[in-house]
Structures are given as structure tokens and as C-alpha cells.
Amino acid sequence: MFKKFKTQIFSSLASFIAIVAFSGISPKSMWIFYEPDIPAVMKDK
Predict the structure, then answer these.
(1) Is the whole-model pTM more than 0.70?
(2) C-alpha dihedral (45, 43, 28, 32), degrees to nearest 10
(3) 3 state DSSP class of 2
(4) pLDDT tens-digit series, residues 6-36
(5) Whole-number Å distance between alpha carbons of 18 and 40
(6) How far apart are CA 8 and CA 11, in angstroms?
(7) SS3 track for 14-35
(8) Of 4, 18, 26, 45, whose Cβ has the fewest other Cβ atoms within 10 Å?
């Protein structure tokens, strides 16, 4: 009985973690590739 319950709990936890992981993936969340526009004052230098 406990084995079936434990399997169901871990399965639900894995599903929840997968949903959270996939919901966070988007082009806007890739902050590593963020390149802000350079102000015109700094472009002249």
C-alpha cells in the first residue's frame, strides 16, 4: 500500500516540477543574451 502511495506522490511531484520548468522557458527569460541599446552619447566615443 505504501509503495503505491509513494509512487503516486513522486509521480505528482515530478509532473509539477516539469510544469514549472517548462513554463519558465521563453526567449524573454534568457537574460544572458540581453543586450541593451547603447545611448547616442556613448556611441560617439
Answers:
(1) no
(2) -20
(3) helix
(4) 999 999 999 998 887 777 666 555 666 677 7
(5) 44
(6) 5
(7) HHHHHHHHHHCCCHHHCHHHCC
(8) 45
